[in-house]
Every structure is written in C-alpha cells, then in structure tokens.
Amino acid sequence: MEKSIALIGFMGVGKTTVGSFLSEKLNRKFIDVDKEIERHHNMKIRDMFATYGESMFREEEKKFITYYAKQPGVILSLGGGAFLQQEIKNICMEECLVLFLDISWETWRERLDELMEDRPVLRNKTEEEIKDLFEERKSVYAAHHERILTDDYTEEEVTETIIHQLNLK
Ligand SMILES: Nc1ncnc2c1ncn2[C@@H]1O[C@H](COP(=O)(O)OP(=O)(O)O)[C@@H](O)[C@H]1O
Ligand SMILES: O=C(O)C1=C[C@@H](OP(=O)(O)O)[C@@H](O)[C@H](O)C1
Ligand SMILES: [Mg+2]
C-alpha cells in the first residue's frame, strides 16, 4: 500500500477541500484531522480554543496525527498549525508524502473575511498581525516533499495538478 499523503499549508489555502477531492479521484480514504477532532469531542475547534485553550487542541492534534500518519494509503488534511510541533513534522515527513499547498499573500488576502469566523487563530488580530503570522509560518512549511503553488488554480485544478505532478492514479 502507498504512503499516505499529508496536505500542509496556511489556513484557508485549500487543504480540506483539495484533500476531499483527491480522495474521491484516487479512491482513497479521506481524513481531515480537524474534523476528526471536532467529531471526537462533539465540539467546534473555535469552542475548544475558547473553553480549554489552544494547548489542549494542540495535544489532540498531535494524538490524532500520530495515529493517522501511520495508516497507509490515506489522504490526510492537517490543520495549518500542525507542523508547529516538531514531533508531528517528524512523523509526517517519515511516514507520509508531505504536500505543501502554497499561496501568495495577495491571493490569500482575498479569503481573509470568509475565513475569520472558524479560525480562532485569526480572530482578534489586525491584518498586519495576520500578515506577520503568514510570513512566520513559511518556515514551518519548509519541511515538505512536494510544493504546489495554488494561486492561479481552482480547487479542482489544484487537485488535477497534484495528480499530474505526483504521477498518482
Ligand atoms: N484554489 C482555490 N481557489 C479559490 N478558493 C479556494 C481554493 N481552495 C480553497 N478555496 C476556498 O477557501 C476556503 C478554505 O478552504 P479549506 O479547504 O477549508 O482550506 P484549509 O483546509 O486549508 O483551511 C473555502 O471556502 C474554499 O472553498
Ligand atoms: O493554522 C492553525 O493554527 C490552525 C488551522 C486550522 O486548520 P485549517 O488550516 O484547515 O484552517 C485549525 O487546525 C485550527 O483552527 C488552527
Ligand atoms: Mg482545513
């Protein structure tokens, strides 16, 4: 069985959407780690952050990813902050094909308002602070096996590009 594919990249770049499309196209199981955590706790991530704090979410994130990264053949969409934890990064780089979905600030900026509601990390930040976070996170995503710049593509086109670039199917 092939290694699992782990999608990484900044919030809102399209990991969840593209992961789901990829799983359909490749007929592979899809796991969105954030959705699994939400289901397990029967709670939205933003409420988890508000009630228990970010560190509780990060622990859960580590537990879930440690388990799923070792499952073969899965399409795994990670949260944008997962690679902040060295342990997660190491496991994924070892066990999975890590695919970095990249985007320019200019393109990403257009999605900001829509993303705010469900992304506690973006809340209560000025645009300048969010831009700083966007820049800081680049070093976090430097660990990857393949990179796709998504700027000029729809979600479907990103999916097709991945299949083509990685010679999947
Ligand atoms: N290539 C794209 N072009 C335009 N919009 C996109 C693209 N990829 C994702 N989106 C939109 O951005 C939003 C966030 O996508 P999502 O898959 O949840 O990202 P992530 O899981 O990386 O946070 C969704 O509304 C999605 O439809
Ligand atoms: O970048 C982050 O720190 C986070 C990204 C989110 O996932 P998406 O990248 O799918 O939005 C989610 O895991 C949580 O809100 C924290
Ligand atoms: Mg997501």
From TrEMBL:
Subcellular localization, as worded in the UniProt entry: Cytoplasm
GO cellular component, one term: cytosol
Name of the protein: Shikimate kinase
Required co-factors: Mg(2+)
Pathway participation: Metabolic intermediate biosynthesis; chorismate biosynthesis; chorismate from D-erythrose 4-phosphate and phosphoenolpyruvate: step 5/7
InterPro entries to which the protein is assigned, alphabetical: P-loop_NTPase, Shikimate/glucono_kinase, Shikimate_kinase/TSH1, Shikimate_kinase_CS
Top enzyme class: transferase
